[in-house]
Amino acid sequence: MNSTANDVRYLTFALGKGRLANKTLELLEKIGITCEEMKDKESRKLIFVNEEQKLKFFLAKASDVPTYVEYGAADIGVVGSDTIMEENRKVYEVLDLGFGKCRMCVCGPASAKELLQHHEMIRVASKYPKIAKDYFYNQKHQTVDIIKLNGSVELGPIVDLSDVIVDIVETGSTLKENGLEVLEVICPLSARMIVNQVSLKMEADRIRNLLQALKEEL
Ligand code: PRP
Question: From residue 164, how far is each of 22, 86, 125, 181 by CA, in Å?
Answer without folding.
Answer: 32, 19, 7, 10
